[in-house]
Structure formats: C-alpha cells, structure tokens
Design goal:
Structural class: mainly beta
Radius of gyration: 34 Å
Shape: globular
Number of strands: 73
C-alpha cells in the first residue's frame, strides 16, 4: 500500500537582493545574541592564557587594550538559528554596534571570522582562569577575513560595522550531520595572522538591540524542482581560479537531455535579461575565453523540463582570483645593517605600520631609518620563509614630515635577489626610488613589475644615495612583495580536522599556478613524510593508503614544474585525525520533506508515491515494515509531527529511525555505489537499537548483500526500553565484503508486532566483545534505603531517612519487598556529603512506579536557602536530571504503573541516565555537592517549603560513592546474560 503523502512543505517564492545578485526563492533569517552569557572573550596573553570574561561590558577585537595589548578571541553564540538542514546559504554577515572609539578605531584592523564546527554549539561556561572556552572549540575550515573599516562614532551600526560575507562559514556548520533548525551557532573572531592588526574595534555587549546581529539569506532548494542549485563556484565567491569550470546541481524536474541553458558574462543586467540560449545536457560549463584576473562574472542556469517549460534560474556571481598576491608579512623576515633608533627597526617596513588603505602616515615609528654609514655598506634585506615567484614590488620611501629638507629617503639604489642565499642577481630595471612627500596620505611611490616573474628566496636593498645628500643615513616606510600563488593552499581536510572515512575520502587543495604535477606525501610521523601519489589532478583518495582508524596523520602537497627554477614548491605539512570508526548510517539527514524522507532511502512495505523528485512510485517490498512515524493519520499520536524520532536517540545524536514491524518485516538501503568494507582493517559492524515494552518477542537480523546474521543477544531485548548495542563480526556475513551494495534490517516472527528505534551504524577495526553483568561494590554505598517497612539506612553509614509531609504508607514493592507510597509526603535524608570521597563521581539508583503525568522530584539535594545543585525528577512520565543550564529529559515516558529502575551516574562533568539497567542517554552536568546538606526523596526544598511533590511509589534506593559501570547497573536491575559492550 503506497503512502499518499501530504504536502508537508510549501515553496515561498520571494525576491531577495544580495549585493549585486538578485535571486528568486531566497528566505532571510536574523537573530541577535540573546544575553550576556552568549558573548565571551578569551585572553591570549601568556600571563592570562585561556582566561575568559562573560561579564565584560563590551567586546574588543582583536586586542583588549590599546597599544596591541592583551590579544584575545571574541566568541558570539546565536540561539534558535532557524535554518533548515540542506539549505544553500546565499549570503550571511554579522553586524556590531560601536561601544567606544579612540585613535585605534581608525587604525588597520583585520580579523578572521570562523565558526565552531558543531551542529549545536554548547553554551559558554562560567568565566574564569584557564577555561579556554573559545579556543578549545573545533572550528570550521571556512574562514572569512574582514578588514574592518574605521569606526567613527559611538552607536554606529551600519556598513562599517557589517562583516564581509560569511556564508561559507554558516554553510559548513549547517551541512554537518546533526544540524537541525533551531540549533545554536558560535562564531569566533580572531586577529588575522596573515595581516596582523594595529588597531582594534570596541563593540557593544549583549543583550538588547545593540548586541551582535546575525543575518542569513538562504535558497529554499531542494524544495523547488524547477530550479538549479548548489552553484560551483558558490554564489558571491571570491578568489575563484581563473581556469575554473562552472558546475551546478540540476533541479529534479530538469530533462536529462538538453535540460540546461547557461548564460554567462561580466554584466549582471545582460545575464539577467538574456533569453534564447542554447540548451545543453551537461551540468558543467567551460567559459569560451580565459577569465580575466580580478573580474566579477555573472551566470544563470535555466532549467528545461520534459514538457519544454523553461524556468528562469538564479543569477549567481563570482570574482576571479587576483593576478598576484601580497606575500604575507608572517612569511617574511627583515634584517638590516642597523637602525638609528630601536623603535624604527627593519620590521617596520613589512608589518603595515603607518599604512591605512594604502596610504602611509608621517609617524617615524612606522618606518625604518638606518644607522650612519657609507653608501654601499648600508642595506636592508628581506628573507622569505619559502621561495616566491615574484611578480612585483611596491615601495613607500621614507615619509617623515622633515623629508622635504632633510632627505633621508633612498634615491639611487641597487636591488638584488637570490634563490639560494649565495648567488645574488640585480633587478636591472630598479635604479632609484621616488622621494616621498612627507605628507600623512602618501601612496606608494614606486611599483616595479617583473616580466617574466622572478623566483627568489631573498631580496636585498642597498642604498647608494639619499635625497638630502647631507647625512649618510637612509630610510624606508614600507615594502610589499607580490607573488604568483605557486604553492598548494586551502588543503581539505583543514589542519587538525577529524574525518570520518565513511563520508570523506577525497582530499583536495587549491593548486599552485604554473605547476603541472602535484606530489602528495603522507605519514604518521611529521618528520618522515613519504610520497604516496603524484599526478596532474588536485585531489587524492586517502583510502588508497588504507589509513588506520583512530590514527593521526600528517600530509603535504608539493607543486612541481620541471621546466621552472625552482622545480618544486614544497608545501606546508598539516595534520588530520581519523575517527576510530567509519559511519555507515547516522540517520541525521532524513526528515519530513522529499527527497529526504527515510522510507525513500530505507525501503519498506508501504512504499511511497511519485512526486517532483521521484518520477515513479515505489509499491513497497511486500513485508510488514513501516519506516518512520505515521504523521499523516489524524488518529496517530505522531500526526503532523516528525517522521524521524527526535527524543529517543543515543548520546550525541539528534535523530533515530523508527522501524515498525508487523510479522516478517524488512527495510533495505541500497548504496549509491558499492562499498569496500575490507579497507582500514575493519572487523565489526556495530549498530544501536532501542526496544519498547509493548513489543512482541521476535528475531532481529541484519543482512549485507542478502547474507543474513540473526541477533545473538537475549530475544527479550526487543521489549526493553533502553539502548542496546549489537556488534556483528563482518566475518559472519557470507558475502563479498569488497563490494557491499545493500544493507537490510529485519524482524522475523509470526503474529508479532512492535517498534524499534535504530541509531548510528558504524564500522570498527577492533573486534566486539561481550561483558557479563557484575554486582556493584556495596562497600562504597553512601546510603541504602530498602524502604522495606523502614526508613533506616542499611549501608552502615547511619544516614537514616526522616518522614515528612503527609504520612506515607508502605505498599508492596519490586521483587516482593515493600516500597513507600508518595503523594504529599517526602523523606529527608541525613546528609551524606561528608562521607563522599569525590563529589565528581556519584551513582543514585532507585526503583519507581507511577501512573501520574504530573511533575515531581524523585531525588533532590538542596542547601538551607533552597538552592539545588542536583535534581532527578519525572515530568509527564519522562525522567530528567539537571544539566548545565536546564533540565535534560530522557524519553520515553515510564508512567505505566510498572516498576522501573532509574539510575543516574555522574562521572566528571558527564551525567548518564539508565532505565531498567540500560543507558537512555548522556548530558553535561555541572552539579557541585558542596553545601548540599538537605537530601530528600519525593520533593525538593524551596527555602523551608516543600515543592514538586512526587506522585507514585519509590522502592529500594541506593547512593554509591563512585560511578557504576554499565555492567554493574545491569546487575542492579537483575540482568545476568552477557551483553554486547560498546566499542
């Protein structure tokens, strides 16, 4: 039976303006930093390294104080970022409001904006020394360099305070598995090491309309099958290779033959108004003429469907790379024969001192002035970190206000270059420098272009005379070198990135210009890199080196042209780490909208209807499997909800996939291309499943290429509402593991029904193992209240309970024992904090039985003022505990009038909740038990008032002075059979 899918989404066509690009189908989202706990500063000064300040009255970047004192990072966290997964970010920026201005507000300031590489950025932690709360966060490969204009007046919140386009940063964040609309984003602002700042900018701190604003414009594909999307180069992208080939993703409705019409040119109006183009089938386009360096181009792709309907596409733009690039000051060292004053060293001629927008000031501390000496003996020399293919050199001569009558500026000059540091050759065309005017707006006096370009490791300037002719001293303000980009750059994965070999295997980089071969070197030892491949293509398949899971590698790309000197431009090595597993399926990319509904990938018995993305329907596989919640039937509890499960999921996951079974049931995913599951020495297929107490006993199985392996655990596991891991040896599958084309999950049985939830399917290199439940160490009990007719503590610690509120009755409990019935009653426990050896490790375990959906406290710890640092409660039948900033819930509900064992384990800053001996999930917790002297069952204290009374029964309750293992908790519940251990 086909699902008759309702339209769950609609397409809103709007007009949007982004720079010079006009696009149809844009949606805009804006959000400000909500409060003072969501913008932060972290000190980079070695004396205060890692110290953070959440309560700062403003945000300064990249220095806390004037004079380039106390460099720091700024982090801004935006909550409830409502951008659906899978969207293309057209344009994005952040905007600040000026808090204060000073002389440095107009000095050069260039910062990098990058994002935290997390699908849901965590809140900033409490301020303090050594927290490293910003720098410890993983960052996006995408970065945007913002040369911040001068900030003129307090309160300004306009173009000068608006960043460059950071769409690539936002795109990388929302493209991560686990991103869901409404998650949080952290952006990090730091000094640009390639263009260090001399000044700083001071912005307002949250909250209010003066806090940092995030603005995002995104295209609503893939909801519109008539439009092309995912342009390459990206819309608005800068620095695009001059020999790039354009490509895009066609809309689902585009005809396979002649379904594309491309318009291209350097005029927006011409491209936007163009008609009558020549249809083509390819989804790539090579411009007919070489692209001009530094030029902005516009292009449009119209889609033609099978009925010859033409749908006008977006107008995209990109900017071609520059002809040459300034060699960063960080890649140059400057030495001189001497300097007249310590505050005027040679370094001042390359660090941008005194330069603002290409104009140099008259401040002599931003220039170099030599010591006294004879002409020919004085020199200033620039040494490059690695050889550069120089295209031009720009010179700002000495520009003191006295230059007009003293004349320290260099006049006649010899300029030499060397590739090996021994042989020096002159630049024949450079014989003199133009005198500076001694004015505060001095543009470069000389630009010398080299044709052909010159390969050099060093350049030396030797003055022969100055413009005054009186004093044997010579000065320079600034020297800049421009070179062709001959080195490999933008290596992907970025330095330090952790990669999943299940999703990432092709490494890429931006190739150097004028090279024809790329040599890739790889090793686990950065000092022993060895060549692994070479060729004309700027990409490398890491799987060809059979990398080890969990290992850290170093790699480098050398650019080679045997016809040039030097023949090799040796790249910089950087590292990447491999996850200790390969992800086969994490279920994060599925949702309510076609073509990403889970049953359109994991085929089931119900099938799906044809739509704009699937021209032919799928009638179902003939089994009783149903993938996803029923969101269409008004009688369904999930009506108009989420197809995927968002509450029941393993730690770190955002979704799991529900699989409903009815008799023999099976769901199958066919991989787009055959997978080799013998690489990286993988041995084990691991998956997680969550049962339901209403499930019928049945046999779970997994197939690879139709080769079946049945579940080897306890059949009753399917009826336990907790997470089970199943580790399957790949050797158990009688199939060709070098060509895995499909994977199936199924349930066998007659007259059986139920629902299972599946999460994270992975491949591991190590073999799985089973563990047997083991009794906990009862000598470490801080308290044990059997509640078997008494409130006494049987641990020997003497922490007896005291009845409070309405009298509580003893009733039959779990396992034939008694339990306590709670309504408006509670039990206060003598504090056991003094008996603890470490408040960072703790286990609280108790049996509960309730049918109520009211909120109540199971276990609470308060001080005399009513402050509580530990609460474990139940609300709507769902157990929760206090996390870092709010309650963390662990569904599904257990208010079924049955006995359940609820166990909380705190190990360091992580809390884990178990129900009936099985883990439900984890969350960060910041509880501090110091001063928590009022422990109780069945309520919490608000000062001296009881509140949040629990309605239900509580049985055997224990508190341990350590973090119990999963095996010990399983034993508490009464499990005895061996269990699979998480890898």
């Amino acid at each position: 039976m086909l699902r008759r899918l309702l339209c769950l989404t609609s397409i809103l066509l709007v007009f949007g303006l982004a720079g010079a690009n006009i696009a149809f189908g844009l949606e805009t989202f804006e959000v400000r930093v909500a409060d003072e706990q969501n913008d932060n500063e972290e000190d980079l000064n070695p004396s205060k390294l890692g110290e953070t300040d959440l309560d700062s009255s403003d945000l300064e970047f990249p220095y806390e104080d004037a004079g380039q004192v106390d460099p720091q990072l700024v982090g801004v966290r935006f909550q409830q970022v409502e951008i659906p997964a899978g969207k293309f970010i057209w344009n994005a920026w952040i905007r600040f409001q000026v808090d204060e201005t000073d002389a440095e507000s107009s000095m050069p300031c260039t910062v990098l904006i990058e994002g935290e590489l997390s699908p849901d950025a965590a809140p900033f932690v409490a301020e303090g020394a050594g927290t490293f709360d910003i720098s410890s966060r993983p960052v996006t490969q995408a970065k945007a360099s913002w040369s911040v204009p001068a900030w003129q007046a307090v309160g300004d919140q306009g173009d000068a305070q608006t960043s460059v386009n950071i769409s690539a940063v936002i795109q990388e964040i929302i493209d991560q598995p686990g991103w869901t609309s409404g998650n949080s984003i952290v952006l990090i602002i730091r000094d640009d090491p390639d263009n260090p700042s001399q000044g700083r900018r001071v912005a307002e701190h949250a909250p209010g309309d003066d806090s940092c604003l995030l603005h995002v414009e995104y295209e609503n594909y893939p909801l519109n099958p008539d439009l092309a999307f995912k342009p390459n180069p990206d819309a608005g992208q800068k620095d695009v290779l001059h020999d790039t080939v354009l490509s895009w993703e066609p809309g689902a409705a585009a005809a396979a033959t002649n379904g594309q019409i491309v318009y291209f040119g350097d005029s927006f109006e011409a491209v936007d108004n163009a008609t009558g183009g020549m249809p083509q089938s390819a989804t790539t386009y090579t411009p007919s003429q070489a692209l001009e360096f530094g030029t902005t181009y516009y292009w449009r792709v119209d889609q033609v469907n099978a009925s010859q309907k033409v749908s006008k596409g977006f107008v995209w733009s990109f900017e071609v790379e520059s002809y040459s690039y300034m060699v960063p000051a960080a890649d140059i060292s400057a030495v001189a024969s001497g300097e007249a004053k310590p505050e005027s060293p040679a370094l001042k001629t390359i660090d941008g001192s005194g330069l603002v927008d290409g104009l140099h000031s008259i401040d002599v501390t931003g220039m170099w002035l030599s010591n006294m000496g004879a002409a020919g003996d004085i020199f200033i020399q620039y040494e490059f970190r690695r050889p550069q293919l120089l295209q031009k050199m720009m010179v700002w001569n000495y520009n003191a206000s006295s230059e007009g009558f003293v004349g320290w500026g260099i006049k006649d000059v010899t300029v030499e270059y060397s590739l090996d540091g021994e042989t020096w050759l002159p630049f024949e065309q450079i014989t003199s420098f133009t005198q500076a005017g001694g004015t505060p707006d001095y543009a470069a006096g000389d630009t010398f272009e080299f044709s052909p370009p010159v390969a050099a490791s060093a350049v030396r300037i030797v003055p022969q005379s100055n413009y005054g002719g009186l004093l044997a001293q010579f000065g320079l303000s600034e020297v800049q070198f421009y070179a062709f980009p001959t080195y490999a750059s933008n290596l992907d994965p970025a330095d330090g990135k952790i990669i999943d070999l299940g999703h990432v295997n092709i490494f890429t980089w931006r190739p150097g210009r004028t090279v024809d071969q790329h040599v890739v070197l790889l090793s686990t030892d950065p000092n022993a890199l060895a060549e692994v491949t070479s060729g004309p293509d700027a990409q490398y398949d890491i799987l060809s080196s059979n990398p080890i899971l969990g290992e850290t590698y170093f790699w480098r790309v050398d650019e080679v042209n045997e016809n040039e000197d030097p023949a090799v431009y040796t790249g910089d090595a950087q590292s990447f780490s491999v996850l200790p597993y390969k992800v086969v399926e994490d279920f994060e990319g599925y949702g309510n909208a076609s073509p990403n509904r889970p049953f359109q990938t994991w085929l089931d018995g119900y099938g799906y209807s044809a739509d704009d993305f699937f021209a032919v329907d799928y009638p179902g596989n003939g089994t009783g499997a149903g993938i996803g919640h029923d969101v269409w039937s008004p009688s369904s509890p999930d009506f108009q909800g989420d197809i995927m499960e968002t509450d029941i999921r393993i730690a770190g996951s955002n979704k799991s996939m529900p699989v409903y079974y009815n008799n023999n049931s099976e769901t199958t995913r066919t991989f787009a291309s055959a997978q080799n599951w013998t690489l990286s020495d993988v041995q084990t297929l691991s998956l997680w499943f969550f049962g339901d107490t209403g499930n019928s006993p049945a046999t779970l199985y997994v197939k690879l290429n139709n080769a079946k392996v049945p579940y080897d655990g306890v059949p009753g596991d399917l009826a336990q509402a907790g997470w089970h891991v199943w580790n399957i040896p790949l050797s158990a599958f009688n199939t060709n593991l070098q060509s895995v084309t499909s994977m199936s999950i199924g349930v066998e049985g007659s007259n059986v029904s139920g629902v299972l939830y599946f999460d994270d399917v992975r491949l591991y290199a190590q073999a799985g193992e089973k563990v047997t439940p083991v009794a906990p160490d009862n000598s470490a009990l801080l308290g044990h209240w059997t509640l078997n007719g008494t409130l006494k503590d049987s641990s020997g610690k003497g922490n007896d309970g005291i009845a409070g509120g309405d009298p509580a009755a003893f009733v039959p409990g779990p396992g034939g024992a008694q339990a306590l019935d709670f309504l408006y009653s509670y039990v206060t426990i003598d504090s056991f904090v003094d008996d603890m050896t470490d408040e960072n490790t703790l286990t609280v375990s108790l049996w509960v039985k309730t049918a109520s959906d009211t909120r109540g406290i199971l276990v609470g710890a308060n001080n005399a003022a009513g402050d509580h640092n530990f609460i474990m409660g139940i609300d709507g039948g769902v157990v929760y505990f206090d996390g870092v900033a709010s309650d963390v819930e662990f569904p599904p509900a257990i208010n079924d009038d049955q006995w359940h064992l609820v166990t909380f384990v705190r190990d360091g800053v992580q809390g884990t909740l178990y129900i009936d001996g099985l883990a439900r999930g984890t969350a960060a917790t910041d509880l501090s038990l110091a001063g928590m002297t009022r422990w109780s069952l069945g309520h919490e204290w608000d000062s001296d008032t009881s509140s949040d009374n629990y309605t239900g029964q509580i049985g055997d309750t224990r508190v341990y002075d350590y973090a119990l293992s999963a095996e010990e908790i399983a034993s508490l519940f009464g499990l005895t059979a061996p269990m699979h251990k998480p890898l």
